[in-house]
Fold this sequence. Notes:
By secondary structure, the protein is of the alpha+beta class. It contains 17 helices and 27 strands. Zinc ion is lined by residues 236, 265, 269, 299, 302.
Amino acid sequence: MNRMTHYHISIAHPHQQFIKFRVLFSGLPENALIHLPVWRPGRYELGNFAKNVRNFSVNYSDGAAIPFEKTALSTWSLKNKEHQVVEVSYEYFAAELNAGSSYLNAEQLYVNPVNCFVYCDQNSDREHLISLEIPEDWIIASSLKQESRVLKAADFHELADSPFICAKHLVHGEYTVQNTRFHLWFNGYQHVPWDKLIKDFRAFTNSQIEKFGSFPVDEYHFLFQFLPYKAYHGVEHLKSTVIALGPTFDVFESLYTELLGVSSHELYHTWNVKTIRPIEMFPYNYQKENLSRLGYLCEGVTTYMGDLFLLKSGVFSLEQYLKELSVQFQKHLDNPGRMNYSVANSSFDTWLDGYVPGIPGRKVSIYTEGCLLALATDILLLKNSLGKTGLDTVMRKLYEDVAQRGKGVDENTYWNYLQTFGGDEVKQLKELYFYGTNDYTSLLQGVLDLVGLKLEVVPSARISASLIGIKYIPNGANAIVKNIFPQSPADLSGLMLEDEIIAINSLLLGGELDKWITYFKEDKIVLTVQRSGRLVQVDLNIGASPLGYKDYRVKKLEQLNEKQKLLFDQWIQ
Ligand SMILES: [Zn+2]
């Protein structure tokens, strides 16, 4: 019997948000194991999607039931015979709408298959078909091959990596760069400024392809989900990306730089992580954590390059680019975790707490610290090769010499290339900064200076942050303390996280903490806070410490010498 898997999907009552699956497995071994992925590539933590499954059942095509039991949280062990078609049925609750999830309502069926498609290892290298029972006037946006209402994937990896949106109002446009077609899909959005959009997308797409020499796949789809509320999220796939952005009215206004930034980032992932892949995830194992210390390569280099390509291609002005870069400096220097945990170890630990703030000062971010260290790596590579080879060259080497030869990348391979092109000065970054917790402010200031940039540091514009050392969120008229700068007046005075500041010198805050601090800054300050159900007085000694939050901005030097001018030009080439 030919081994294959055929999914039948129906959405009879979309307002209830359950996608109904009937999956026909042919050629299963006796007593097969059926799995649902426990995580999704792009988010390196457990997702445990099986919690969204109900009414799981298994039978033969004549309707006779097949006994089964769960032997792991996302694994069903069947008591089936060989050489019989096995039918697995279940319902999946699709009620989360972000760039990596699945969502169903009366307007759309949006599916990230890695969330909700069960699979069997023995069949996973064979063809997978999806038959969709959806309204006749709905359009399907997907990188999968389509024949009427049937989608085809060559194997389970392709299926798991190919999200699709089915909806009535899908707006489509496209452009071609170097013989590759790029599709742009907008779900329910009518006001696309096509000329501007395609000009910008073509520019950064072209720049990226030129630096890598070729595009890894034959076509590509940008799937946009614009949301009516604040949203910023993109997820990479080999032949597509899903980008969730909002609020809708701002996506081509104040959020347009974000739209460009996330789109360029996700496109860069087509090479970096979808093709150039850490060996620990090569291939992806959907049944357990895929622990890797190379997050600084996958996400750090991609974060750095995503924005840099917008500058290189002329889509961003230098001012726009430096604004985005300054955000990374701000996040890095605000986070005391940089003194406690390396970016390599933080990469390993994304599976633990990589997508939440986590406990104070524990860790850093593969995006932020990875980006800043990629900047340092790139500029030092350029300096040491007299502008000939930067990080672009190393990435192209990984693409051509490793990825295109069907291999995963390990840490040594990456560092050997960096050493080959950048010498010992680049090699020593590894132990000091990537795997160590040494302060790299002066390293960053040094590389900025090489290309005629500088880091400007001023006290934080918010007086509560600069003078007292706290960040807070408003709660009605009060203020809840969310961050405390180590050794700042707030820290030394015993203020605690989650303290809700109600009054200052017995005067109610009225939503104006910063104005009251300015008013009382020369005086003694006593805060009244609510702490775990009690009222507590905190004496705030402002003079006790000069430490507090600062604002960081990367700027161009007024005067550049010849060397700086030359390296700057080579950097943004
Ligand atoms: Zn990314």
